[in-house]
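User: Can you help me understand a structure? I only have the sequence.
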Amino acid sequence: MTAYSPSTHPSRRAQKLLHRFARHPSVGDDAAATLEQVLSASPLLTSQLNQAVRHGDLRAFDLLEPGSHAGGVFDGDTGVISIPLGLLTRQGEPEIAFILGHELQHAVGSAEAQRRVARFFESAEWAAAHDFDYTPAIRDHLDWHRQDEAAAHLAGWNGLVDWIGHYLPDPTLVDVVLATRFRAGDFVEPGDDSFVIKPLLSVRPDLRFDLTDSNIAAMSTYYFDRSPSEMQLGALGTSDYRNEYGCWAVMQAAACHRHFTRVHRPQPTMIINTTELGLTRRIMEENGIDLGGLPTQPYLDRSADPPRLGLLHHTVGTHQFVPDDHLERVGILRSDRPVTGVIRSSSVRTPGALRRTDRPTASRPATPRRSQGRSR
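Assistant: Let's start by predicting it. Here is the structure, written out as tokens:
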């Protein structure tokens, strides 16, 4: 866990970000004052803000787009934290404190996120040069996002508790629940007489969570692993975290596959195991798959027995699932149709250096935006 020295005032550079946000045409004086008041009440959040700005990880605040299915978003490519205008009120301060804690944790972890993206592409390029199975690369990437989101969620709680402490010295779990039952429900459950911390989570006497491996593992289950109906993420609010981040990884793997196998004749089929990865084509297509303008990308799904040939569809502009049952009827996706490609073990591999500098990507940013779940 990163150690933060309490900071009661935003740095000059951080103040510039806040002043620029206040000049946003849709942000009124009251909304801008709310953001500054939340930071003023929380030395922890202010310290995180100053660190993120000092290292260049956070470069601006912005408003979430209307209708966004997220509580907050950090974009690692632009260094922007987006927050909902509707919560920038006196009543919304507890929620804003939590959102800031969550998104600032993402911001200060930007360097590690970039390393993980590079690691993903290295693994995907290894698959493109060997067995065309992108399951290990995608699984490793999803496992990291699972831990990253859990750590950010714990940091959100810490920001909330720190904010409450400004008004209520030595707050209790009841105080946290009363401040925002919506967020507290991820961390506490009813006990015999009051509320207790959920099993497997270990909280300090001051009600903060250390970002230990055991706490992150527990929160991964309580938060990242929740179902699409609980999380309501993505363009249509139909996604969970796994399919949101999986959508990015699958379409980047498809771009690598097309690029590095383009000289093969016939071109091999990319392989993924959707069941092992917890991915659903419908949800990924509703999130918006970018195939660089191509209408489809064939893939072999190893989760079926025998493996099933399927199609990913370019839906980044429509966010509409495209059924492929009509393709089965005309024989395009018959299970007995010959498929070029070798199915091998999906065990985790350590790819060697491929010395490739012409890395392809889909048109989405190289670093997936990290969205905070709003609903459950």
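Now, to help you interpret it: The longest strand covers residues 296-301. The CA atoms of residues 61 and 81 lie 5 Å apart. Let me know which part you'd like to focus on.
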